[in-house]
Design goal:
Helix content is 21%, strand content 38%. With 126 residues, the chain is α/β, with parallel strands linked by helices. The chain has a single domain, classed as 2,3-Dihydroxybiphenyl 1,2-Dioxygenase, domain 1, CATH 3.10.180.10.
Length: 126
């Protein structure tokens, strides 16, 4: 249902290095290059993509309070891996890996913020 998500950045080099390393852990690479404006990562053109862009209006990029993008993976081990990798790369923890709701079943997730403060959920259904 989601085609792509665009997140603003004020440091394209730092953000692109973060996402190259983070998404590379699940075999996802850059799909599109927008020059000095940004990049898009995805598995293929038929799947949702994550884009990092400098704002078109030239103003400072800011995070949206309550805004979150979700990355789907195949297993609890991949949720754990991506969450740990995000923290290793300088991201911040917003919720350790585990079943949601606590004690529930089926939805395994972890939450983190990237270097610019954008919030992510990495999850799988079991």
């Amino acid at each position: 249902m989601i085609g792509y998500i665009v997140l603003g950045t004020n440091d394209l080099a730092q953000s692109s290095a973060f996402y190259d390393a983070l998404l590379g852990e699940i075999g996802v690479g850059r799909m599109m290059d927008f020059g000095e404006r940004g990049y898009a990562w995805g598995a293929d053109m038929e799947s949702p993509m994550l884009c990092i862009m400098t704002p078109h209006n030239g103003e400072t990029a800011t995070i949206g309070n309550g805004t979150m993008a979700a990355i789907t993976v195949d297993s609890q081990a991949q949720v754990d891996l991506i969450h740990a990798k995000a923290l290793e790369l300088g991201g911040t923890d917003e919720g350790a890996p585990g079943l949601r709701p606590e004690g529930g079943e089926g939805f395994y997730a972890a939450y983190f913020r990237d270097l610019e403060g954008h919030k992510f959920d990495v999850f799988c259904y079991q």
